[in-house]
Every structure is written in C-alpha cells, then in structure tokens.
TrEMBL record:
<dbReference type="GO" id="GO:0030170">
    <property type="term" value="F:pyridoxal phosphate binding"/>
</dbReference>
<keyword id="KW-0456">Lyase</keyword>
<dbReference type="Pfam" id="PF01053">
    <property type="entry name" value="Cys_Met_Meta_PP"/>
</dbReference>
<dbReference type="InterPro" id="IPR015422">
    <property type="entry name" value="PyrdxlP-dep_Trfase_small"/>
</dbReference>
<keyword id="KW-0663">Pyridoxal phosphate</keyword>
<feature type="modified residue" description="N6-(pyridoxal phosphate)lysine">
    <location>
        <position position="205"/>
    </location>
</feature>
<dbReference type="GO" id="GO:0016846">
    <property type="term" value="F:carbon-sulfur lyase activity"/>
</dbReference>
<dbReference type="GO" id="GO:0005737">
    <property type="term" value="C:cytoplasm"/>
</dbReference>
<protein>
    <submittedName>
        <fullName>Methionine-gamma-lyase</fullName>
    </submittedName>
</protein>
<dbReference type="InterPro" id="IPR015424">
    <property type="entry name" value="PyrdxlP-dep_Trfase"/>
</dbReference>
<dbReference type="GO" id="GO:0019346">
    <property type="term" value="P:transsulfuration"/>
</dbReference>
<comment type="similarity">
    <text>Belongs to the trans-sulfuration enzymes family.</text>
</comment>
<dbReference type="InterPro" id="IPR015421">
    <property type="entry name" value="PyrdxlP-dep_Trfase_major"/>
</dbReference>
<dbReference type="InterPro" id="IPR000277">
    <property type="entry name" value="Cys/Met-Metab_PyrdxlP-dep_enz"/>
</dbReference>
Amino acid sequence: MATFDPASRIQKLRQFGEFGGVNPSITDSSTYSFMHGEDMFETFLGHQEGCFLYSRHWNPSNKYLADALAAMEDTESAWVTSSGMAAITCALLQLCNTGDHIVTSVTTYGGTFAFLKNYLKKFQIEVTFVNISNLQSVEDAIQPNTKVIYTESVTNPLLQVSNIPKLATIAKRNKVKLMVDNTFTPMIISPARLGADIVVYSMTKFINGKNDCVAGAICGTQQFIDDLSNVNDGTAMLLGPVLDPLRSSSILKNLHTLHIRMKQHSRNAFWLAHQLDKIGVKVNYPGLPSHPQHMLHKNLMNPDFGYGGMLSIDFETVEKANTIMQKMQEADVGYLAVSLGYFKTLFSCSGTSTSSEVPEDVQQEMGLSHGLVRFSVGLDNDISDTFQAIQQICEAEGLLKK
C-alpha cells in the first residue's frame, strides 16, 4: 500500500468563509430558510445537496469539520457528534437491531464496555467479549446474527494493537462490519485504508488537543452517513447528539495542527518509554521492541507519525500508584486526571478510573493490574525533565532495578 499522508489531505481542502475569510464562517443558526417550498421537501428527503434544514440534521460548520475528517480518514463521508460515546453508540445502534450480536475486544474504554455489557441488554443485543489479538477467538465468536466486530486500533488501557487487515478479512468473509475506535492513534493508523468499514473517534482527545470541549466523530461510506442522518430512521438524527457549530469551528482549526502535535506526542512518548525501560520501570509502549505487537504496529502505521503518545506503567498496587501519581503531580510531571491527548501529560490509575466499569474479575482475566497507570504523554519541549522527575520518584519508592 502506498504511503498515506492524512495531514496533506486536510491541508489541500479549500474551505473559505462566507466573505472569503481564510477560516470557514461559523453558522449561528438552528434553522435555515428556503427560496422554494419544493427545496425544503427535497432536503427533508436528503436529496438536496448543499442545502441545510435544521442544525440537528446538518449545519455548514459541522459539514466543514466532517469533510476534513473524511479527508483525513480517506472515507467517503463523516458525521460529527457531541461526544465520543455518542459516536460509538449511534454507530452501533444504526448497525444493530433487537436480536443481533456484536463481537468486541474485552480490552476497551470503560464507557464503551459498560454500553456493550450492560446497556445493550435493553435491546436484547448480545455481545461476546474476546481477546482481540487472538484472531481465532474472533472467528469462533461470530454467530449467524453477528452484525459488527468492534475494536480499538490500540486498546484502552492495555495498548494491544488490533490487526485491522486480518480482522477486516474475517469481517468480510462473514459479511459483518468492522468498526474501529481510532481515538488513541489519529493520523498514526488509518483504519479505513486497512479495511475497516467505520471509524469512530472521541475528538475530545488528540484531535482537539486542548481538553476544552467534548466531541466525537463517525467516518464511513456516504450511504452509512446518509442512513445515520435520515430523518425517518437515522439514529444520529433521531437521538440528536448534535455538536455545537462554535465547537466544530474550534476543532477544525485545531485539526490543522494535529500532524505536528501527534509527531511531538510520539517523539516524547517513544523517548520516555525507552528511558524508563532502561532503568527497570515496568513500562508498556507499542514503540518498544518488547511490546507483543511492536512489529504489527510498525507495519500498520503511517511511519511519519510514530507510535503514539500513550504508554502505561505498572506500579502493581493501587496504593503505590496513587502515591506516585500524587508525587508526579507535585513534581510538575503533569496532572492526575482522566482523558488524554492534552498538551500536558495526564495520568490515571485505569482500574479505578477509566476502566472502573469493567468488573474486577474481568480486569484480572484481561491482565489489567490494580496498579496500572495510563500516561498520555504531553508536548513537553524537554521531555528529559519529565523523565528525571519520574526517575527520582521511582527511585525513592524502590522501583528501580539495582
């Protein structure tokens, strides 16, 4: 496959403001006027390209952002939502009906796990959780009523790398859809080019990069996005998780610096992971040769963007993790906070925070240590300062190899 440059795809878009502004205009309207009655009717039916009906359906600001995301992912179209969970839930509910079945990675974001494990019972949609790196278990889990294989490009928080091309082969052979959450690895991995049918994001994270809003995205075929937004039975249209146009405009501006930010996140995380590994800290990072799917990640990624900004350290116990995180915050390593993709480093103990929805016995089965701390490495200009602070704290806690 030829080298793909998602940043250049965005750069080449021509999106001007209403009066020739270099930034697209922000549309501060909930509803839109029509010159003719028949135009309104055709727009209701989805037949009137370029016309806007009501902001819950489409608005120009959201369309600009959706077009840029589709260009980045190399999909035909995209839809933006008011949160990452809205993107995930709307896409899955559009694909599945009562009595259907989903195969998913057991290692996934806690909110997604809760939706799949608990909420979908309301609709009698069955879900089978598997080790996504075991392709045979994925194949074996598929049933006649399976509609979706769901995974994350790099799973949260264990950082397993999904073999998207082989999962796509399994999906196509069984006539099901492959849906991939690419929140951890925008621009680094391009799931649609690797065979995924639908790509979802929490844009709250790396894509926006400032932790000042909550937003999501769904990227896929034109038909799928049209179905999502259909006024009669489109899940996104009828459930109404619309993104505010002002936020769309802000995210679109930030999207144009995503390639710079992802490269710096990756450089910092790569260097930090290697230094921590050298001193004996139990670090997990796809860019380390010791990572079980290191070569897979290397083969899947767009090479200019590195291995990503996410790593984890196993401090073994919750008590030890909490002590070290508090000390790291006091030493200005970053913030003890959930979320990721921020310009400052963020860290949290996954089992008691972003994966707390996963029952403790399931956490143990999937290998999630009580003391696993997920790091979203920031945009530090001198990452060696961060390393020295962590090293001193680990040394004081007796965690370094003798």
